[in-house]
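Example record

The entry below shows one chain as it appears in the dataset: sequence first, then structure tokens.
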Amino acid sequence: MPICYLGLGSNSGNRKRNIQLALNKINALIDTKVLKVAKLLNSKPVGGPAGQPDFLNSAAKISTGFTPHALLKKLQNIEVALGRPKKHARFARRTIDLDILFYADKVINTKKLTVPHPRLFEREFVLKTLLEII
């Protein structure tokens, strides 16, 4: 099964619990296993409305039998299940934010999905958590 790296973040509600619930739901997906998780890292919001609370971030290494687009859909369903609205303002507060950072060695550039994640190298918190589990 392909190895994927995910970014996880939360800045609304019980941030630590939101991330743990997301990891549990990811691990419960058919043909998917969470292999390694980075320590939680606090970070300031990037962009978006002023006055937002800090984010708690992590990264996870997973194996999955889902195609990249199917995995994206599953992750979006988890976000909605954990209280993130289907339609949301870019960079708004989030109970959970799940991003595919890498999907095996694939390069994907479609309307719905870009892998590697397009802002991966602009976010120190992503790089720190990712480096911890690679």
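Notes for this example: The chain has one domain: 3-133. The mean pLDDT is 91.
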